[in-house]
Every structure is written in structure tokens, then in C-alpha cells.
Design brief:
mainly alpha; about 250 residues; Heme Oxygenase, Chain A; two-stranded antiparallel sheet; about 5% strand
């Protein structure tokens, strides 16, 4: 069994896993992700049945843009902090897929947002909600101020949840909020593939690099990020929850 130390964070309390001989790394990671699995968050449960209002969808799209825009910088920070050559090469390839892509993820998200009537300016000027800022700060902190392995663990806890999440979001969009042009939903197809590859590479490095000495820090980075990702969605529901009452999608155009 894992013993746990309670750690107080700016917006709540989470538990820090500590190493135990009879608990494998794989089992610990699985428990962390399952505990904070955003697919089970009420926001996406409502999304999946078409019960998220247009106004709330606009807020989510604007807030998620902040995460997409800042992600390559987090990868770059980890690359700068990594001394092991093979790990540096893997991270550099991942970073090149992000920043060197013909169609950058942020631009694909802008295209999707514009199909919903949200302008680029609206995305850029969107106020960052407190729990969006907390998620960004959590990930940035691990990527910039901790070991490269802790940074990778933080990104893994975020990225490993995205492929099934994007699939579910696509299903909900097509069912309740039809977007006829494939170019407007290309982001979801691209990111499902890209985040699957990224998380597999991150996990491979983590599995090979975790030791008795760094186990607690690595798993704590994962749980801190997974927790903050869940709270990111809480933040949207707290501010705009009054509009999440019933299916109010209206076809644009």
C-alpha cells in the first residue's frame, strides 16, 4: 500500500505518494491518472450528452487555448534542463513536432474556435481564470524549476489524458454541434495521434529513469498536475456553471 503525505497547495489539498516496496510504478501511475481522470469530470459528462451551453463552450475554448499556446515552451524548458543525451534527442523531436509542424496546434485550435464564432483576438485577450493559471503554473514549475524527469512526469499526466478526451469531444461535437468542414475539427485528429506518441515516449523515459531516490518526486509531479487539470475544469464550471443546465447548442450559419 502507498503511504501518503498531505501537501497543501494554493487551491486545495492533495496527497503525495511515497515509495513502498509492494507498489509498482505502473500501478501507482494508473491510480494517479484514474483518481483525477478528466473524462469523468462533470464538465465532460455534460459535454458528452450535449448539455454544455454555447457560452460555456466559448469559455472552455478560450481557456484551453492558453494551455495549447504555452505547451511548447514547457517542452523547451525540459530540454534545456536535460543532461542525458538520448533523452534530449527524444524531447527535441517532440518539440520539433510541436513548433516545426506545418500546421501548428495553436493555429488549428484557432481555426476550430473561429468555426464557433470565436475570433483570434478573443482567444488572445481571454482572461486567464485562476484555476487555469494554477494548472499553467503547476506545469511550468515542474518543467522549469525541477528535474527534467519531474517535468516529463508533469507533462505525461496531462498529455496521456488528451487522446481519449479529444475523441470524446469530437463525438460530442459531431452529435450535438455539427461542424460540416473537416478543416474545422482537424485539431482533434492531429492531437489524438500526436499526444498518443508523446505520452508513450514520456512514459518510456519515466519507466527507465525512476529510482528509489526520485520515485516520490516523480509521482508527486504527476499527481499535482493531474489534480490541477481536474481543477481547471472546476474553474470553468464554478464561474459559468449557471449556464450548464440543458442542451442549448445552436447550429451556426
Amino acid at each position: 500500500m502507498l503511504t501518503r503525505t498531505i501537501i497543501k497547495h494554493p487551491i486545495g489539498i492533495i496527497s503525495q505518494p511515497s515509495i513502498a516496496d509492494n507498489e509498482s510504478l505502473s500501478a501507482t501511475i494508473a491510480k494517479i491518472i484514474e483518481k483525477h481522470n478528466v473524462l469523468k469530470h462533470p464538465f465532460f459528462q455534460l459535454w458528452n450528452c450535449g448539455a454544455v451551453s454555447n457560452d460555456t463552450l466559448r469559455v472552455f475554448v478560450s481557456q484551453f487555448y492558453h494551455l495549447i499556446k504555452h505547451f511548447p515552451r514547457m517542452l523547451s524548458a525540459i530540454h534545456s534542463n536535460t543532461s542525458e543525451l538520448l533523452t534530449r534527442k527524444v524531447i527535441l523531436k517532440t518539440l520539433n513536432r510541436e513548433d516545426g509542424a506545418k500546421e501548428h496546434s495553436a493555429e488549428l485550435w484557432v481555426r476550430y474556435a473561429e468555426s464557433l464564432g470565436i475570433s483570434r483576438m478573443e482567444l488572445e485577450n481571454a482572461h486567464t481564470l485562476p484555476k487555469t493559471r494554477h494548472l499553467l503554473d503547476t506545469m511550468n514549475n515542474f518543467c522549469r524549476n525541477h528535474s527534467s524527469l519531474e517535468g516529463l512526469a508533469s507533462l505525461y499526466a496531462y498529455e496521456v489524458q488528451l487522446p481519449p478526451l479529444f475523441k470524446m469531444k469530437m463525438d460530442g461535437l459531431l452529435k450535438y454541434y455539427p461542424l460540416t468542414e473537416k478543416r474545422n475539427t482537424k485539431f482533434f485528429h492531429v492531437r489524438q495521434e500526436r499526444d498518443t506518441v508523446h505520452s508513450l515516449l514520456e512514459r518510456e523515459i519515466i519507466d527507465k529513469s525512476v529510482t528509489t531516490e526520485n520515485y516520490t518526486k516523480v509521482t508527486f509531479a504527476m499527481e499535482s498536475t493531474a489534480y490541477a487539470f481536474w481543477k481547471f475544469l472546476d474553474g470553468i464550471m464554478e464561474v459559468y456553471g449557471k449556464s450548464i443546465k440543458q442542451h442549448t447548442f445552436v447550429r451556426l450559419g
